[in-house]
Amino acid sequence: MAVTKINRKKSGFQRRKILPYLLVSPYLLFVLVFVAFPVFFCFFLTFNKWNIIAPMHFIGFDNYSRLLHDRLFWKAIGNTLKFLLLHIPLQLVVSLFLAYLLNQKIKAAAFFRASFFMPVIVSGVVVTILWQQLLGYDAGLINRMLTSRGMHKVGWLVNPNVAIYSIAVMATWKNVGLYVILFLVGLQTVPPQYYEAAKMEGATRWQQFYHITLPMINPTIFMVVILSTIGGFNLFIEPYIMTGGGPLNTTLSAVLYIYKQAFQYYNMGYSATLGFFYAIMIMGVVVLQKKFIEKEV
Amino acid sequence: MYVALSAAALTFIYPFIWMIGASFAPMHEVGNLTFWPAHPTWDNFKIMVSKIPIGRSLLNSLLVAVLTTSLVIVTGSVVGYALAKMQFKGRQYIFYVIVFTMSLPFQVTLIPNYITMINLRMVDTYFALVIPFAVSAFAILMFRQAFQGLPQALIDAARLDGCNETGIIFRILWPNIKPTIVTVAILSFIGSWNEVLWPLIVVRNEKLMTMPQLVTLFATGGRADSQLGVKIAAAVLLALPVMIAFLFFQKHFIQSMASTGLKD
Predict the structure, then answer these.
(1) Between residues 210 and 249 of chain A, which touch chain B (CB distance below 8 Å)?
(2) A240-280 pLDDT, tens per residue?
(3) Full-model pTM
(4) DSSP assignment of B241-264, as one string?
(5) How far is the C-alpha of B256 from the C-alpha of A233, rounded, in Å?
(6) Above 0.90 for ipTM, yes or no?
(7) Would an 8 Å CB–CB cutoff place A181 in contact with chain B?
(8) A48 has which bridge partners?
């Protein structure tokens, strides 16, 4: 307020010139402190060994060669990819299916939409604690239902071959509602005349869906794939609470590993190297997806 | 069709209802499949309150979320206004910077920002939980878009009346972009309320912890391990405020969240 008052006394021309910079200055300051500095500092850290307390120690490319030979890191990336391999297709199919149903002028659509949306807004911590009870081995709800029907228990979170996929299903359950809404918006952009024309030609429902709906909502599909890829690569709180990365490190996600390196072992330089590498990898994957999907159109 | 939809709705809602029921169940009844325990009790909540400062963490979460949201709205409007309605050198570059910051994965900034917090002596203060989230690139873009849709005449008329720029933004323009304000408010409130990774890093003092952080540490730290019901009660308390807000402002929530995907 004070500044604008002083400025008003100056000529209008001058005031107009300074004012915009004044208005964007909070953002510029923020970017400087929380984006520009971190990016450079992170890059700088990758050439150093540092545990915060002792002075920094320049070690050249040691962190990078350690990364290349770090089996656990590659395993964590592998786990994250396994997670994505189930999470993305499941997310796409389930959310598109539900959106498609909701789009058929049905009653109580608002109720259904809201119920799908509930897990989206609730904290991941809640969802994780809840699913821990569902997926427990002895007392878990799902295993109890299975045994009461004479079936075998499944080690949803304790079997090394299953655990990461259980987490993928849970993450899908949490996010599907958001993508249902995105698909609904997409589906509503398809002009109804297209379907009417197709019906006149004798196209089946499936043909209509495949030849009209899918191509028309391609941008939404692209968006859903990108959003769930980025979200999936950031997998952290679910394994952190549910399994701590176990059993046998099969649910150790890349972000959880990066977090542990920094805030459990205090290998700041090494963790920064992992983070830097991982960030570039994510951007690379997203760019590739973009190219691939654009070609498909 | 209705069968499929109802089955799906049940899959999404049943676990929550079960969770609320289980939070009132005495220890030997927690694992039961029934909706409501045969002998409901407040014990789980009582034990939780005696073990962790859950009430305090609720206030912390509220304070942090309200402060963050207000700052995001104010900074977002001011910067968004400059980008939408003013001509100045470098405007295009700032726009590029915003898009870049939005696509930058947080793994890169995590450790440096922690170091910044240490150097600014902000670790274990509310500042650490609010300041790094006080400016949102997404909010700036939302406000920019909203302001672009308003006629220049509105601004010119206000200037003729001697209104300064802050007055123009907050008194003249704000009433015209209420939906955008609501959207940004909901998104940043939910984002702040549910944030857990950052608090885990910058807050160690139990008195300053936000609810998700406290509940996470409670659930993983072994203090609740033997008592499932207590753990679930903590989860219920964490979920309840957001769920209630959602029931009241359902439409706004869904529209807001949908717009996150539509920013491009």
Answers:
(1) 223-224, 227, 230, 233-234, 236-237, 240-241, 244
(2) 888 888 789 999 999 999 999 998 999 999 999 999 999 99
(3) 0.86
(4) HHHHHHHHSHHHHHHHHHHHHT--
(5) 24
(6) no
(7) yes
(8) A58
